[in-house]
């Protein structure tokens, strides 16, 4: 899990990770340099932009809400060598502290009255059309290499990553380990956000500490609930409208033997 190839280092992007190298149940492994997960890409510095371009990406899928994109911006359109797709998986989330009496869209973190993963299944079902669109985009002939991201690269990104790795036949324990790697990014991201995005930093301080804990039980709970209700992660995607052929094509491009 600590393979130095996995974490792609940038100055102002802290959770950009390669999903390659993980073993699959049929004796293969996920291809390196083909699919990445990340936190938000609107912060990239000039040096970051050069390193980003060097990855040879074809596709970027931005999972943030319309409000997040409007408030913070998107990947610089100067990266016109790739296709940028906005596929929102939350509605009108504003990353700013809530004033007294102000309503705020719930943060997609486990609540005290939910079992681990229940909130994630709720997001997957409520934004099922968006989730299906992500997999349709990734399965396109010229889509890869690709990266999908949200703001921190944990919740919405974690849902897509878990379903992808599950589709490829990666073991649940590995999926959980991949999910918790986000925790390592916080040591670098927290001081940068405090210095450069104070309003977002204040928003994060309003979230109870216990609700920001990153536990593998959350993503495993999500997969368990999806399997219990739909049969498998793949069956969930089929229920949402993704075609068998698209899932087979994506798997064929991402797994090597």
Offer a concise description of the structure.
This protein has 257 residues and is an alpha/beta fold. Helix content is 45%, strand content 9%. Strands 1-3-6-4-5 form a 5-stranded mixed beta sheet, covered by helices on one side. The protein has a two-stranded antiparallel sheet with strand order 2-7.
Number of strands: 7
Strand order in the sheet with the most strands: 1-3-6-4-5
What amount of the residues lies in strands? 5-15%
Q: In CATH, what is the class?
A: Alpha Beta
Task: Supply the helix-strand structural class.
Answer: alpha/beta
The largest pleated sheet is described as: 5 strands, mixed
- Are there runs of 5+ residues with pLDDT below 50, and where? 105-110
- According to CATH, the fold-level topology is Protein-Tyrosine Phosphatase, Chain A
Count of alpha/pi helices: 11
Write the CATH homologous superfamily.
Protein tyrosine phosphatase superfamily
Helix content bin = 40-55%
Structural domain tally: 1
CATH architecture: Alpha-Beta Complex
Measured distance between first and last alpha carbons: 20 Å
* Oligomerization: single chain
Kindly describe this structure.
This protein has about 260 residues and is α/β, with parallel strands linked by helices. The chain has a single domain (about 15-250), classed as Protein-Tyrosine Phosphatase, Chain A. Helices cover about 45% and strands about 10% of the residues. The chain is built from eleven helices and seven strands. The chain has helices spanning about 45-55, 65-70, 120-125, 130-140, 155-170, 170-180, 180-195, 200-205, 215-230, 235-240, 245-255; strands spanning about 15-20, 30, 35-40, 60, 85, 145-150, 255. The strands form two sheets. A five-stranded mixed β-sheet has the order 1-3-6-4-5, covered by helices on one side. Strand 4, helix 2 (about 65-70) and strand 5 (about 85) form a beta-alpha-beta unit. Helix 4 crosses helix 11 (about 245-255) and helix 6 crosses helix 9. The longest helix has 15 residues, at about 180-195. The protein is globular. The two termini are about 20 Å apart.
């Amino acid at each position: 899990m600590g393979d130095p190839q996995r974490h792609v280092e940038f100055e102002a992007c802290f959770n950009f990770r390669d999903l390659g190298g993980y073993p699959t149940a049929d004796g293969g492994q996920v291809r390196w340099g083909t699919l990445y997960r990340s936190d938000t890409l609107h912060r990239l510095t000039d040096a970051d932009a050069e390193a980003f371009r060097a990855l040879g990406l074809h596709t970027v899928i931005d999972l943030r809400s319309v409000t997040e994109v409007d408030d913070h911006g998107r990947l610089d359109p100067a990266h016109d060598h790739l296709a940028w797709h906005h596929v929102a998986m939350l509605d009108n989330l504003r990353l700013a502290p809530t004033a007294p009496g102000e309503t705020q869209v719930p943060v997609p973190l486990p609540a005290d009255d939910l079992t681990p993963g229940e909130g994630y299944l709720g997001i997957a079902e409520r934004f099922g059309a968006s989730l299906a669109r992500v997999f349709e985009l990734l399965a396109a002939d010229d889509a890869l290499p690709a990266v999908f991201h949200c703001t921190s690269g944990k919740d919405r990104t974690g849902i897509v990553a878990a379903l992808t790795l599950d589709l490829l036949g990666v073991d649940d324990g590995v999926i959980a380990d991949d999910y918790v790697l986000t925790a390592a990014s916080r040591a670098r991201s927290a001081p940068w956000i405090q210095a450069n995005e104070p309003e977002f930093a204040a928003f994060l301080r309003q979230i109870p500490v216990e609700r920001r804990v990153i536990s593998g039980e959350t993503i495993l709970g999500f997969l368990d609930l999806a399997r219990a209700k739909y049969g498998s992660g793949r069956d969930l995607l089929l229920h949402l409208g993704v075609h068998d052929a698209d899932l087979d094509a994506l798997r064929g491009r991402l797994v090597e033997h």
